[in-house]
Design goal:
alpha/beta; 12 helices; globular; binds ligand LLP
Length: about 425
Amino acid sequence: MSSAFAYRSSIFHAEAVPVPRIAEAYGTPFYCYARAELHRAYDDLASALQECGALICFAVKANGNLSIIRSFAERGAGADVVSVGELHRALAAGVPPEKIIFSGVGKTRAEIDAALATGIYQFNAESIPELEVLNAAGATLGRKIPLALRVNPDVDPRTHAKISTGRKATKFGIAVEQTGQALAAVQQLPQLDLCGIAMHIGSQLTAIQPFDEAFGVMAALVAEWRAAGHDIRRLDLGGGIGIRYAEETPPTPAAYAALVKKHFSGLKLQIAVEPGRFLTGNAGILVSRVIYAKRGGAKNFLILDAAMNDLMRPAMYDSWHDIVPVQAMPGSAVEHWDVVGPVCETSDLFGQDRALPALQSGDLVAFMGAGAYGASMASTYNARVLIQEIMADGDLFSLIRRPVNIEEQIAWDTDPVWVR
Ligand code: LLP
């Protein structure tokens, strides 16, 4: 649990703001971020990587809120985007285009055109057909494409299967044995400036060995490609550094940086990394109110006003988030609760048999480690409000995304105007 969120006189606070004060002002549920914690995470990583001169490109998919992106941009961060929508968010938050990397297996021509027009730092290509589209886009605009090839090093990242990307059998990157073919294709495509190599083997990595293994593959490929006459000047190591949700002991920024040095120092490469979760995960909580405490039957259920549409991770990855009462109840007997939302699915389950005090209707709870892939994966399923976001800064707090209510959502729909 990060120090930005802690009890003060039995009341859970976000920085110096009592969480119930925010609930009073804006209602529940909401995400709440601690600005100082965002900065702390960024500064930890930036100082560890300083010697390597690495550019930190925040993976916008982890949290696309403009205030979040801006909190890194103002410290010099770039952005890693995977859609034109994320590109626009990064630009709107003030990230300079020359610090933006466009990743993703399925960039459309329209997305490539839009990104090229802004003058982004680099495209990370993941297939041979994509190289042809990039080349065509470059030819139309009369521009050279700053290109890195994302290689799939076939390394097991030892994380949840649904967030593993480093194995050959996944859709990501170009297999090592296909890189010769990709290099040959590049040579035929005059608009491509192959300047880099990229990797991303998965998310929430808690062991350092998979990074070690994959970095080894990258270093060997840099040497091989250079020997073949390619001017490889850039290296993109992707994201993936895990955070502590429960008992994990993820690699520290210092250990990660030491590994980068071990493999790449002296190679004269401009290094980029694309962390998402590490920067925002522990800087955010989800706050929700108990609607009903339903006792008896086989189990006790704590039915909250937040649901799987607000925080998808438990339903999707069986992920663990600590759940804490906002008002500490030290004298209360501990009970065991299945913590659920109101959505009509059995998977709308945040945690089973959680040891929590005797909570009642109206009590507030907070989900820890909700700052990454929480709000950014939220939806309006069950015609629920698209969740609001708040930022705390010292004893101040502010809405940073208003809730999208049902009137607004109904207005998204149009009556049919039939055509043939
Ligand atoms: N770079 C690329 C190319 C990526 O695909 C990703 C994440 C990142 C960087 C950032 O990875 P991070 O540093 O956050 O681990 N929704 C899942 C996580 C999906 C990650 C997808 N790619 C979750 O909630 O756990």
